[in-house]
From TrEMBL:
Keyword DNA-binding assigned: no
Species in which this protein is naturally found: Sphingobium baderi LL03
Lineage: Bacteria, Pseudomonadati, Pseudomonadota, Alphaproteobacteria, Sphingomonadales
InterPro entries per record: TraB/PrgY/GumN_fam, YbaP-like
UniProt-recorded name of the protein: Conjugative transfer protein GumN
Pfam families per record: TraB_PrgY_gumN (PF01963)
């Protein structure tokens, strides 16, 4: 597995977020171009219903001015905001959901699932990112993999409270829009919990191996998102998932198909809906747009 897999998980799932300071010269170039940010937006439309599709990044640095132009107009015209999940107001509630699903039921210590050489690298990576590996021993490998996917981004200054969902949710509350979700937190976390153990170990190992390159590669992902380049996002984010078909099926393709069916059903009622999901779901083969096309629905790119 390539690093892009762990990068996609860090960007595409609302499960572990945080805020710490940091600086990245590659990302500084992105920040200086923030006024030009124009992420991609699509619409699905019939006589009395419009559904906008917006791809998000869940953790960002301050200073990226993306909520404007066509995106802001589409949002303002919408009656309803629909996200992947609605996060609990109390972070402890999400932590409780995660820990309940993450505890290993067979009593095997996490480090014992790893080969000796991989075990040492894992423990060193956890300690280097301020994560006590001993505290994760009772958990399944996916939990540690997610933690390691996010911790380096926290060090670099990416903030969950700067993520697109936080901005959209706050704006929706101010304007009195209905806020809905395509999944529950339990469902989203459950996608990891049901992964076969071999896949969980492979995910954790790949995340550890890719930590050294994550800084530059995540900055590249952000630049493609800002520039509205879904094809390049697909190349960087989804290619590695497609190289691991079982993971791609569970974490990406099945969810895309389910969301497309939700949109098809929603098109039967009038109104305007703004859907915001991880950008990886709206890019590449078997994207939500591809699944909509299979259902007979056309999605078109919305310009500035």
């Amino acid at each position: 597995m390539k690093l892009a897999f762990s990068r996609l998980l860090a960007a595409a799932l609302l499960v572990l977020g945080g805020t710490v300071a940091g600086h990245d010269p590659a990302f500084a170039r992105t920040e200086t171009r923030s006024a030009l940010a124009a992420p991609a937006l699509w619409e699905v439309k019939d006589a009395d219903t419009t559904v906008y599709l917006f791809g998000t990044v869940h953790v960002l640095k301050p200073g990226i001015d993306w909520f404007k132009g066509g995106i802001r107009r589409a949002f303002d015209q919408s009656d309803e905001l629909v996200l992947e999940i609605i996060e609990p107001d109390d972070p402890r509630e999400m932590a409780s959901i995660m820990s309940t699903k993450a505890i290993a039921q067979d009593g095997t210590m996490l480090s014992q699932r790893l080969e000796p050489s991989a075990r040492g690298k894992y423990q060193a990576a956890m300690e280097a990112n301020g994560l006590p590996w001993q505290a994760f021993e009772i958990f399944n490998p996916w939990m540690a993999g997610l933690a390691l996917s996010v911790a380096p981004l926290e060090k670099l200054g990416y903030k969950a409270d700067q993520g697109a969902e936080k901005t959209l949710t706050a704006a929706a509350k101010v304007s009195g829009k209905t806020i809905g979700a395509l999944e529950t937190p339990e469902q989203q976390i459950g996608y990891f919990a049901v992964l076969p153990m071999a896949q969980q170990v492979a995910f954790l190992t790949a995340t550890v191996e890719g930590l050294g390159d994550m800084e530059a590669q995540f900055a590249s992902l952000i630049r493609h998102w800002q520039a509205g380049e879904p094809d390049k996002l697909a190349e960087e984010m989804n290619e590695s998932l497609e190289a691991t078909p079982e993971l791609a099926q569970v974490l990406l393709f099945q969810r895309n198909a389910s969301w497309a069916q939700w949109i098809k059903t929603r098109m039967e009622r009038p109104g305007t809906v703004f859907i915001a999901v991880g950008a990886g779901h709206l890019a590449g083969r078997n994207s939500v747009q591809d699944q909509l096309k299979a259902l007979g629905l056309l999605s078109t790119r919305v310009g500035e």
